[in-house]
Amino acid sequence: MPKELLDKKDIDRILARMAHEILEKNKGTKELCLVGIQSGGVHLAKRLAGKIKEIEGKDIPVGSLDIAFYRDDLNIREKQPAVRRTEVPCEITDMKVVLVDDVLFTGRSIRAAMDALMDMGRPSCIQLAVLIDRGHRELPVKADFAGKNIPTAIDENVEVSLEENGLEDKVTIK
Amino acid sequence: MKLLSKDLLGIKELTKDEIILILDTASGFKDVLKRDIKKVPALRGKTAVNLFFEPSTRTRTSFELAEKRLSLDVLNLSVTTSSVVKGESLIDTALNVQALGADFMVIRHSSSGAPHLIAKHINATVINGGDGINEHPTQALLDAFTIKEKIGRIEGLKIAIVGDILHSRVAKSNIYLLAKFGAEVRLIGPPTLVPKELEELGVRIFHDMDSGLDGVNVVMVLRIQMERQGKGFFPSTLEYSKNWGLTSERFRRADKDAIVMHPGPMNRGVEVASDVADGPRSVILEQVTNGLAVRMAVMYLLAGVRE
What we know:
heterodimer; A: 5-stranded parallel beta sheet; B: 4-stranded parallel beta sheet; 37% helix; globular
């Protein structure tokens, strides 16, 4: 039976807080850019950019990143992961890039995403923002901005559903 | 969604959904080709062998570059330098290449069905790079990708293929693909090269170029193979060009937003006039670029098929 961990209001409050934290750490929006990992991270990156605009009144570039070609499990998967668009609307060299994902789990997607970013340019730094940190890291990866830490068992499934995908905003665990 | 077979032998063997998957995946690879670093590690550690029993520059270089950009190790074997000239059989050649550790074999052969024969005998993934007068599937896929990119859809379009349809594997693959997508395909050319029997493929046949081009959205011009000259298929290149060459005047019969395609290599002034080939409606060089993205997509997806 899936258990609801966060609802629409919770997610909205968390994203507002994360937007403030991102601005605080980076001292504003200068050279700041958000890149969401396909597909869940892209919607969250857009929402964070919206919050940042509300706070600072400035638009910052938001990109999407597909990490399929950089995964380390292509040889062992049942089928190839679907390839979605990669569109980063600015040169990332010398930019502060905040990677955005919905759930941080083993850290392997983040490793792949960092490799993909490095092939696109040389950012001045890469930071990581995730809505949910569920633990069980297999690589030395840590979130700079975590919406909520949720202790989980390894066989549990954390699901972030979003309105952008035609669903109701919520986070569930089962 | 995934591909169903470990090999890409022809468009005939693919479902519409598989074709859509390949085209969607190719869009992702086209993004990669726009970057400074045009290489991804997706197939690192795997090996591709390009086995070309027939001369080819553009298809082989396109496959080779696609393979390199997927981080594959690449080996090129052409017939003039291989043991085939010493009498080795096709299957023995393929088995030896497999024993070297090839994961992919791209095969071009003058006999129709050669890749199909090889695929039956080896475990490596076989990709048909053009077999006889049968099929050239990656060409049809890159043509479809280009049409979708330029016009936004294939369904319901009127598409003319002009030239030597009888001997063209490019035309065959395109006819199969366009039929799966519900386009109206018109074949244009002399009766010797566009015989009536081809109507069985569900196409319309025109021997008069002007009426065939009327209102079409896409004109695919095929290369007139000079080696056919003097074999009775058409009197002379001059006469061919007079009747079936695509000039800017004739091209005006097509839809005002129509595009011109050619699989290359072109005989300028024979099957297509230079001002059309270099004109604003020509997508001939974009086809070449898209070929890379499509071949990368095919190999990436085939690597995920487990049998």
